[in-house]
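[Help] Beginner question about ligand-bound structures

Sorry if this is basic. My supervisor gave me a protein sequence and a SMILES string for 2-acetamido-2-deoxy-beta-D-glucopyranose and asked me to "get the holo structure". I don't really know what that means in practice or what format the answer should be in. Inputs are pasted below exactly as I got them.
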Amino acid sequence: MFSNASQEICLLVSAGLAGIIAVPLFLRSRRLDAIPTVGSTNSWWSAIKNLKGTSGIIQEGYNKYKNAPFKIPTLYNWIVIVSGTKLLDEVRAAPDDQLSAVEGTNDFFKIAFIMGHRVANDPYHFAIIKMQLNRKLATLCPIIEDEISATLSEMFSSQDDEWRPVVVLTTIRKVVSRAGNRIFVGLPLCRDPGWLEFGLQYAVDSIVSAAKIDLFPRFVWPLIANFFTCTGNHVGQAVEFLGPTIRERQNIVDRARSGEVDDFLQWLMNNGSESTEREITQRILAMVFASIHATASSLMRAVYDLAAHPEYIVPLREEVDAVVRQDGWTKAAIDKMYKIDSFLKESHRLGGASSLVMIRKVSKDFTFSDGRIIPRGCYIAAPSCAIHHDEELYDKPDAFDPFRFVRLRGDGNDMKQQMVSLSSDFLAFGHGKHACPGRFAAVVIQKLMLARIVSSYDLKLDDGAPASCKTVEFGIFINPDPTTTILLRKRSSV
Ligand SMILES: *[C@@H]1O[C@H](CO)[C@@H](O)[C@H](O)[C@H]1NC(C)=O
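Answer (accepted):
No worries, everyone starts somewhere. Holo just means with the ligand present. The predicted complex, written as structure tokens, is below.
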């Protein structure tokens, strides 16, 4: 996602800037003296190094201060990192006007500048995810499956008996974006190559713009954001794709309300909080942005892990064949795919898309039960990767053991072991009431995709490829190397 050249430029620019504007950081740090710092004693140098990736320093902090808070600097601020059920429970229990999940996310992704102030300040699309999307997943499963198999069979001819190289991220992004758009805007738009291409580019551009704005202190964001974003332009382009559909539906409101059209666009229109084409389009763009990166990178890891360990293809295939024979490609079948679920969860546990999750902005001074005060203006977050590799929480934490969560389910079928469940030991989707509301759909898409792949294809790695997917870090983000390839061919034994 980020080329090396642009990383170097970012580092240079920030070194300069941070040197000049690091004063507020030191002022705030005095109030944070009770919380130990990890990394170099020179905070701004540490902050600049953290732009290149934070997982190493966070692991170091976790090794030293597990279950107690420690802090790392960003260019102009501090992130206080907390772990352990007790502290995480205190963070979860804090009221929104004290520890704000919405403001934390807005700041990290610069939502107001990239998606507009309305999307940032009134995220009612979250409510629609909960009220509509999550409740309609059973109806949507066969539809999503249809989109995934249509995409896969367009990309890979069923005549392909020969092994052929496949660029994993490109492939996965295509499938994820079509599956997502089938839910967001429905047919035929979800298959429009122009719209899909635009959406993928939009998601990448948005992250890059956010990273550039992040090189500046918060109080100048409103002034400089325009130089690094092209929000107006993006929305204008997106309206060209969505506008005709929105207008057409506005003219046939009654038929649509009766339930003939059932997709996110329609739920937004039925809600009526916003009614102009631009407003509705911005919500759809927010969904496109939120759905692509994490889902695609998680799935990509899983597909790579499967290619690296092809011995697991047969047991996964047997599970999928058995449940689909019984229930078809339904939600009931997907719920019974324990091995698929466990495989995805294990792959995410070892990989992960971000070294920190549960990011909260401290809006009013916050006091932990041990008396330690976190001053207003900092961030609090949880070290997901470090927690996922903790040997007290996971037996042989560095081993890839794809069916470990099937075993942990036990005979009682402990549902807490499924990927979508929240806990302070597994933080793929955050934790507590602000956990990612789209996780149910994200997991369904991932399970359907992995199930479809094992039932139709054989995978393996090229000779000499590394046993786990290479990654590229930037700040708190961990991205799989976009050039990674695997080998794929039509399933040989039916
Ligand atoms: C629109 O969404 C908001 C936020 O969830 C909700 O409070 C409101 O009742 C919805 N309105 C309609 C007409 O569905």
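A couple of things worth pointing out: The mean pLDDT is 90. The pocket of 2-acetamido-2-deoxy-beta-D-glucopyranose is lined by residues 124, 127, 271-273 (CB under 6 Å). Feel free to follow up in the thread.
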